[in-house]
Amino acid sequence: MAHKPNIPLNSKQLQACAKQALDQCACSLKICKGWESVSDDRWPSKQLKLEGTLRRELADGESELSFEEFHPNGTRYDSPEAPIALNYFPYNRADVYGCQQCGCAVLKYTEYGGYYIDQRVRLVDAALVTDAT
Predict the structure, then answer these.
(1) Which residues of 25-60 are buried (b: 16+ CB within 10 A; e: fewer)?
(2) What residues form DSSP beta bridges with 108?
(3) Alpha carbon distance 122, 90 (integer Å)
(4) For residue range 11-29, what is the model confidence (pLDDT) as tens digits?
(5) Residue 74 — left, alpha, or beta (φ > 0 → left; ψ -120 to 50 → alpha)?
(6) CA-CA distance, 86 to 95, in Å (whole number)?
(7) Secondary structure string (H, E, C) spanning 55-74
């Protein structure tokens, strides 16, 4: 995974990151198939490297990024089968990390609730990445 962390990744690059994963790693994030809350003590920072971002710049006339989600098959935000649609929430606010032991790719974004801040993580399944607009 040779991407610069500050450069946005496209769907093909994200799929390539995900396809590098090996099964033999006991990475604690492999269970995060849908968006899962991950505390600092569960985030394996020493084995993860920031690979890039899916964050998008605002288009002309936009005051903030969309909170619209993409679920054409009736999935939900936290569903393991939900498409990974880069132009939609929460992917348009996520960074991409790679496990230095197994090569799996995980997405991470910060959920800002009324009274809390929550780190959310999702393992990237290359088959679910889509270019939906």
Answers:
(1) bebebeebbbbbebeeeebbeebbeebbbbbbeeee
(2) 95, 121
(3) 10
(4) 999 998 887 776 666 677 8
(5) left
(6) 11
(7) CCCCCCCCCCCCCCCCCCCC
Q: What is the pLDDT of residues 29-50, one digit of tens each?
A: 888 899 999 988 888 888 889 9
DSSP helix/strand/coil, 11:
helix
| Longest alpha-carbon distance in the chain | 47
Query: In this structure, which amino acid lies at residue 16?
Result: A
By C-alpha distance, which of 123, 106, 98, 102 is closest to 24? 102
The structure tokens listed for 106 are 């995980």
Contact 105, 96 (CB under 8 A): yes
The ranges assigned to domains in the chain are: 11-55+69-130
Task: State the virtual CA torsion across 74, 80, 85, 87 in degrees, nearest 10.
Answer: 100
Q: What is the length of the chain?
A: 133
Neighbours of 7 (CB within 10 A): 10
